[in-house]
Amino acid sequence: MLYSFFKTIMRITVRIFFRSITIHNRELIPAKGPLMLLANHPSTFMDPIVIATLLNREIYFLAKGELFKSKFAKWLLPKFNIIPVYRKQDDPNQMSKNQDTFKKCFEHLENGGVILMFPEGISITERKLRPIKTGASRIILGAEARNDFQLGIQAVTIGLNYDNPHKFNRDLFINIDTPIKTINYKEQYAIDNFKAAENLTEEIRSRLEGLVIAIEDERSDVLIKDIEMIYKYTLSKDLGISKNDKLSDFNITKNIIDTVNYYLENDIQRVESIRLRIKHYIDDLNLLGLNDIDLAKNRKNRSFFKSNIQALFTIILGSPIYLYGLLNNYLPFKIPGWLAKKISNNIEFRGAISMVGGIFTFLIFYTLQITLVWKYTHIKWLTITYGISLPLSGLFTYWYFHTTNEIRNKWLLLILFYKKSVSISNLIIEREQIIAEFDKARKQYAEINIYK
Q: Is the CA virtual torsion 82, 352, 354, 87 positive or negative?
């Protein structure tokens, strides 16, 4: 009962929290039968909430045993279908309890249930796939072995690719692979169950690696992010890729990573040359108080004068609604973020805390505000209108704030063009040369791949 209610609330909340959610290959998740969902784990509490909202089926979750320390947690967490799993790094003395965990998982799969597990065993917000533990493979193969491999467990790998899981109104791309047929490991398990678990774990790792943006080296990640910032917008535009086409966007990033990795191994000087040019370009942007997107969208300012009237109308006519929305929504919007920072220093927790906390702050504030309007006016139509206006004005305020920010940046760029036209022109030329240099490297890498 509690699980179903919370899941319904979370479906609505997740849709509001993220600007867009794109799910690739959703139809590959089986609608019935025993199922293991295996995902990467960039955001501790956000990940299970997001995946649970994908399925109409009831899901059981494996979570670290540390969460079950208090009596309240031991009572509450099982009501959300959470099963404790004990890790050696937390408390080696608790490891024996995993026998009971495995037994519960076996029984649940034998009843045709769904289990969600994060085989990395740790949550860190990095574009990196951590080593995959064998626990998921041991549960799958153990359950099949108990039933002479007649269960037909399907293991589905899921890649969670967040723009930023800790901030409101960002994008989420969920990448799903075809189910792993565990029957394929029957013969090997009969010969060597340890080796079978290792091989299944390797298949899980390989599949997850293909579903997420995974960069092993932190220095390379910085470079790749910079190249994405400068190059991806232009390449997407040249290829005619819509900003809503998240699969193509994902594949562009994968291609950038492959290109950089190739030259890191085969032509390090070329990589360092691009890295240095990008560093100088970004330093010059920072000195002028600009972002790359300012130049990408407005590098010739052709549309500025055409949109100037519209921008002024937006600012002037929208300001009263903005102030009204700000007054009514500021505290319930800000409090969850403040609480998240107070509750946890761990960034992996903050997004989910803010999202869940937002449910309660908006519910409490809106209820109180509507009640006060009714109490002091007793005008039904006014109270209803006010209640409807609260979320609508809040969404408008968020949009208005970011829109006026973009307008301000356009005006700043125009002023800079007049004051420092040579500096801006040089930056635009440098940006185009960086794009041309990397585009040449990417095309050469693509040609090399054709002949491999």
A: positive
Q: Which amino acid is at 248?
A: S
Token pair belonging to 410: 């356009």
Listed residue (34, 288, 282, 7) closest to 147, CA to CA: 34
- Report the alpha-carbon distance of residue 438 to residue 142 in Å, rounded: 49
Q: Do 160 and 45 meet the contact criterion of CB atoms below 8 Å apart?
A: no
Cα angle, residue 31 at apex, residues 161 and 249 outer, rounded to 5°: 20
**Distance separating alpha carbons of residues 191 and 188, to the nearest angstrom:** 5
pLDDT tens-digit readout, 169-190: 889 999 999 999 889 999 999 9
SS3 (DSSP) at 19: strand
Q: Exposed, middle or buried: residue 344 (CB in 10 Å: 0-12, 13-18, 19+)?
A: middle
Phi, psi values for residue 128, rounded to 5°: -155, 140
Q: What proportions of the chain, in percent to the nearest 5, are helix, strand and coil?
A: 70, 10, 20
pLDDT in tens, 23-73: 999 999 999 999 999 999 988 788 999 999 988 889 998 877 676 777 777
Helices (H), 171-232: 186-191, 193-211, 218-227
Angle ∠(333,336,339) on CA atoms, nearest 5: 145
CA distance 198 to 247: 30
Q: Which of 33-42, 88-97, 264-273, 296-305 has the lowest mean pLDDT?
A: 296-305
Q: How far apart are CA 50 and CA 144, in angstroms?
A: 28
For 71-138, give the DSSP string.
HHHHHHGGGGTEEEE--TTT-GGGGGGHHHHHHHHHHHHHTT-EEEE-TT-S---SS-PPPPPSHHHH
**304 burial level (CB within 10 Å; 0-12, 13-18, 19+):** middle
Nearest C-alpha neighbor of 208 from the set 42, 65, 49, 346: 42
Q: In terms of Cα–Cα distance, which of 264, 268, 397 is closest to 320?
A: 397
User: Which structure tokens are listed for 202?
Assistant: 């390797």
> How many Å apart are CA 208 and CA 29, to the nearest integer?
15
Cα distance between residue 426 and residue 411, in whole Å: 19
Phi first, then psi: give them for residue 245, nearest 5 degrees.
Answer: -85, 85
Question: Residue 160 gets which letter from DSSP?
Answer: E
Give the chain's count of helices (H) and strands (E): 16, 8
Chain centre distance of CA 168: 11
